[in-house]
Design goal:
single chain; mainly beta; two-stranded antiparallel ribbon; 50% strand; 16-stranded antiparallel barrel
C-alpha cells in the first residue's frame, strides 16, 4: 500500500471509530419545558418565565486579554535586537446560536494593525461527537492547544512553535470520555494574515489527529499521556522553512532557522506528550519530530523536545480538562483585594530544537529558562522570566548565545 492510500485508510478508520463511539442523540430538551413537564413550575409560572426570557435581550459572550512585554536585559542585543511591545490584544466573541450549535471568533491587534485570529462553528448535537469547521488550531500538542493567557512562560517552548502545524482552514471531528479525548481533521491552507507570527509551516492540504488518555486521575493529581500526528502536502513551489524566536518576543532574531528547503514533496510532524500533576506541583514534557520528504535529495529529520515544571508556592493547582486534553490557568485562592497575597508560582524549563539534517544547517538551539509568576487578582498576571540561550550549534548563528530577562503584564476581562 502506498503512502497516500495508507494515510487515507488511517483517517477513514479514525473517523469510523469516532462515529462508532458517539451514538447520535436527540437535541437536549429546554430546561423550562422539563421543569414544567415535571410539575416543578405551574402553568402561570411557566408562561411568565417564557415571556420574560423572550423579552430579555440576548448578548453574545465577550471576553479577552491584553499582554505587554518589556525587556529588562538582553545579552548580545546587537545581534538579537531588543524591544518593548504589545504582544497580544484579543477580543473573543462566542455564543450558542441554536440547540447544539455554537460559534466562536477572535480578533486581535498586533504591531499597530488589527487582524483576524480565528473563527469557527461547532455542532455538538450528535451525542458525544462534535463537528467543527472554520479557521482554527489543528489538533496537535498539549502546549500549543493551551491558551496563551494560561502559559507557564510568556511563550511556548521553541520546538512547539517551530514544528507544530499551526492554524488552518478545515473540518474537525472530536469526541471524548471522562478520561480521554480524540480529535481528527482535514485542513487546507493557512489564513494569509500573519500579524501574530503564528507558528506552523505552510502547505496546501493535509490531516491532523491527536489522542489523549488520563490513566491516573484523582482530586489532588493526574497523569496524562497523548500523541499527535500531522501530514501535509507541500505548496506548489515545493519550498519550506522552519524556525522561531528564542522564546521571547522582546527580541527579533531567529537563532534556529533553516534556509529555504527546496524540492519538498510532503512533510509530517509526530509528537508525544505527558503531564504529571500532584497538588501544587506539575511536570510537563513533549517530544516532536518533523520529517521532510524531498525529490532528488535526502529526507530531513528535525527533532525537538522540552520539559517544564511548576510549583505554586500558595498551594493552587492548574486546571486540567481530561475531556479535551488541555491545561487551564491558575486562580488565586486569596486575592490581594481580599487581604491575601494572590497566587505565586515558580517555573523552570529546558527546551531543544535541532534544525541540522541532511545537508541543511538551521542550527541546534537549547534554552534554559526560569521564572516567577504572580496573580494578585484573577484577571491579572505578572511574569518575570530569564532565558539562557546556550551557544547555537551550526547555522548562520553558530556560537551565538544570549541571556534574556523580560517582564510581562497581562490583564484579562
Amino acid at each position: 500500500m502506498n503512502n497516500t492510500a495508507g494515510r487515507w485508510v488511517a483517517v477513514a478508520s479514525l473517523v469510523a471509530a469516532l462515529g462508532a463511539g458517539s451514538a447520535q442523540a436527540a437535541e437536549a430538551p429546554d430546561l423550562l419545558d422539563t421543569l414544567h413537564a415535571n410539575r416543578v413550575l405551574s402553568d402561570a409560572q411557566y408562561e411568565a418565565l417564557k415571556q420574560q426570557r423572550t423579552a430579555t435581550p440576548h448578548w453574545p459572550g465577550i471576553d479577552g486579554y491584553i499582554q505587554f512585554d518589556a525587556p529588562l536585559a538582553v545579552g548580545n542585543d546587537t545581534r538579537l535586537g531588543s524591544r518593548t511591545n504589545l504582544r497580544r490584544f484579543y477580543v473573543h466573541v462566542h455564543d450558542g446560536i441554536a440547540p447544539g450549535w455554537s460559534y466562536t471568533t477572535t480578533f486581535g491587534y498586533f504591531d499597530g494593525k488589527p487582524y483576524f485570529t480565528d473563527g469557527s462553528v461547532t455542532y455538538a448535537g450528535f451525542g458525544g461527537l462534535a463537528v467543527t469547521g472554520g479557521y482554527f488550531k489543528e489538533p496537535f500538542s498539549l502546549s500549543y492547544l493551551t491558551s496563551p493567557k494560561d502559559l507557564l512562560f510568556p511563550e511556548r517552548p521553541l520546538p512547539v512553535m517551530a514544528l507544530v502545524p499551526g492554524k488552518k482552514i478545515g473540518l474537525q471531528l472530536a469526541t471524548h470520555g471522562a478520561r480521554w479525548s480524540l480529535a481528527a481533521g482535514v485542513f487546507g491552507g493557512a489564513y494569509d494574515q500573519t500579524a501574530d507570527a503564528a507558528p506552523g509551516v505552510a502547505g496546501r492540504w493535509g490531516e491532523s489527529l491527536r489522542a489523549t488518555i488520563t490513566p491516573w486521575l484523582r482530586p489532588a493529581g493526574l497523569w496524562e499521556v497523548g500523541a499527535s500526528y500531522a501530514w501535509r502536502e507541500a505548496d506548489s513551489d515545493h519550498k519550506l522553512s522552519f524556525g522561531y524566536l528564542p522564546e521571547s518576543f522582546t527580541v527579533g532574531t531567529k537563532l534556529a532557522n533553516t534556509p529555504t528547503i527546496t524540492g519538498v514533496s510532503w512533510f509530517s510532524t509526530a509528537g508525544v506528550e505527558t503531564r504529571l500533576q500532584v497538588g501544587a506541583f506539575s511536570l510537563q514534557s513533549e517530544y516532536l519530530m518533523a520529517h521532510v520528504e524531498r525529490d532528488g535529495a535526502p529526507a530531513l529529520s528535525l527533532p525537538g523536545w522540552y520539559a517544564e515544571a511548576s510549583w505554586s508556592l500558595t498551594g493552587e493547582s492548574r486546571r486540567y480538562d481530561p475531556t479535551t486534553g488541555t491545561v487551564g490557568g491558575l486562580t488565586p485562592r486569596r486575592t490581594l483585594s481580599a487581604g491575601g497575597a494572590g497566587a505565586w508560582e515558580l517555573a523552570a524549563r529546558y527546551s531543544a530544537l535541532d534544525l541540522n539534517s541532511g545537508g541543511v544547517s538551521g542550527g541546534f538551539e537549547r534554552n534554559a529558562s526560569a521564572g516567577v509568576n504572580w496573580y494578585p487578582e484573577k484577571p491579572l498576571k505578572f511574569m518575570l522570566d530569564a532565558i539562557r540561550v546556550l551557544p547555537v550549534r551550526g547555522g548562520i548563528d553558530a556560537g551565538v548565545a544570549s541571556t534574556i530577562v523580560m517582564l510581562r503584564l497581562q490583564a484579562a476581562y
